[in-house]
UniProtKB/TrEMBL annotation:
This is Betaine-aldehyde dehydrogenase. GO terms for molecular function: betaine-aldehyde dehydrogenase (NAD+) activity; metal ion binding. Its EC number is 1.2.1.8. The active site is at 249. It is an enzyme of class 1 (oxidoreductase). It comes from Pseudorhodobacter antarcticus. Residues 15-469 form the Aldehyde dehydrogenase domain. NCBIfam families: BADH (TIGR01804), PRK13252.1 (NF009725).
Amino acid sequence: MNVQPKASHFVNGNWMEDTSGTALDVVNPATGAVIARLHEATPAVIEAALAGARAAQGAWAALKPIERGRILRRAADLIRADGDRLARLETMDTGKPLQETLVADWPSGADALEYFGGLVPSVTGETIPLGGDFAYTLREALGVCVGIGAWNYPSQIACWKSAPALAMGNAMVFKPSEVTPLGALELAQIFMQAGLPAGLFNVVQGRGAVGAALIADARVAKVSLTGSVPTGRKVYAAAAAGVRHVTMELGGKSPLIIFDDADLDSAVGAAMMANFYSAGQVCSNGTRVFVQSGILPAFLDRLTARAERIVLGDPMDMATQMGPLVSIAQAEKVMGFVDRAVAQGARLVTGGKGHGLFVEPTVFAGVTDDMEIAREEVFGPVMAVLEFSDEDEVVSRSNHTDFGLAAGVFTADLTRAHRVIGALQAGTCWINTYNLTPVEMPFGGVKLSGVGRENGKAALDYYSQIKSVYVGMGPVDAPY
Ligand SMILES: NC(=O)c1ccc[n+]([C@@H]2O[C@H](COP(=O)([O-])OP(=O)(O)OC[C@H]3O[C@@H](n4cnc5c(N)ncnc54)[C@H](O)[C@@H]3O)[C@@H](O)[C@H]2O)c1
C-alpha cells in the first residue's frame, strides 16, 4: 500500500509543498521501513495556512448551523465508507494493531463528526428579562483555531478537535505529531470531498517549533493541544501571551480501584484494557491498579494467565492483539521504566522484556506509592499493581498525584462506587468498566492533566464565546 501523500501539507484547499523545510521521514514502527517522506512547514507554509483560515472563516460562520452540520455528517459517512483503507494507513503510521484501528480510531472520529454535525443546529443563546428592557446572548465562533496532536490516536485526535471547531463556525490549522503525520492529511481530503470550503481545515507538518510558530500568530484565537504535561506547560504559556483560549488534553497516572467484592473477570479484563490497549499508549490508562487485599492473589493469578496469552506481532495481522510501540525512542523510554522498577524493588509478575520496538505486556506487583512506576506516566504496556486495605486509604493514595485525567472503580456496592468517584480528583471516571470514551461523553482532566473538555455538549463551549446584547426599550435616563 503506497501511503506517500501528494505533498506534505494541505493548505487552503490544495496540497502544498516546500522542500526547503526540514525532512520528516515517516517510519512504519512494525517494519522500520520509511513509508513516506515529508517536509516540515516553513514560514511560508504557515503563513499560507493562517491566511487561508482567516479568509475562509467569516463566511463559514455565517452559514446556517444545519448547513455546516450537514458537511460534517457527510465527512463521517465518507470515513465509514473507506474504513478499511483508513485503518490500514493508521496501523502503518502508528504500529497499533489493525483489530484496534478498524474499530477505535477513525470510527470514533466519524462519530465525533456525526455527533457535532447533528448537535450544532440546536445550540442557542438565552434571553434575559430585565423588566421592560431585556438582554440576549449569542454563541459565536472564536475564529482561527490551532489543533496540535499527539501520536497515539492521530486521526481520532484530528477529528475530535476539528469536529466541534468547524461545527461552531471556526477554521482550523492542524499540526499532527511529527511521528504520525499521515491521517490528518486524509481527513483534509475527506472534508474537501464532503464539501467543506477551502481554507477551513488546513494541515501543516512539523515538530514543536512549527506548533510554537502557529500559537504565536496574532490571528489565532485558540489552541487545543493533546500532548504531554511538559509540552502543555509551554503551549499554555505561549497561548497566555496572546490571551488565547486553550484546551489542554495532557498526560495522566490514573488510578483503577478494585474492591474485594468486584466481579473478578471483569476487573481483570478492565485492568488489561486499561494498560495494554494500543500497547499502553493511551493517556487515560489506569496505570495504578489498586487491588484490595482479599482479592489480590486471585486477581494476580487470573491477570497473569490472561496477560501471557496476549498475541504480539505484525499489527496488520488480524490475529495480533498488540503491536510495537510507536518509535524506538518510546520503546527505550518504556524499558528504562521497567528496569528502574525492578531496581526499586517492584516484583515483576510477567513480561518485562523488550524486543526492539515490541515490549511484552508487563505486570509489576508489590508496587509502593513512592516508586517511579507509581508516579510517572510510562506510556507503554506496563501495569503497576498496588495493594490496599480500606476505602479511605485508597481514595487518599489515588489522589496523591499531580495528575487528574481519569479514574475507575470496580465494586458490587453501588453506593460505595458513587461515594468513591465523588472523592476522586479526576475529570473522566468509570464505574465497573474502563477506558470507554464515547463522543457523547465529555472527556478531559483536572490538575496537571488539563484544562477544558473534548466531546459531549461541553466541547462546543470551548470552541465558542458568548456575546451579550442589552436591548433598551425606553428612553435613556442620563444623570447629566
Ligand atoms: N489527555 C488526552 O486526551 C491525551 C490523549 C493522547 C495523548 N495524551 C498525552 O500525550 C503524550 C504523548 O504524546 P506525544 O509524545 O506526542 O506528546 P508531546 O507533548 O511530545 O507532543 C505533542 C504535540 O505537541 C507538539 N509540540 C511539542 N513542543 C511544542 C511547542 N513548544 N509548541 C507547540 N507544539 C509543540 C508536538 O510536535 C506534538 O505534535 C502523553 O503524555 C499522553 O498522556 C493526552
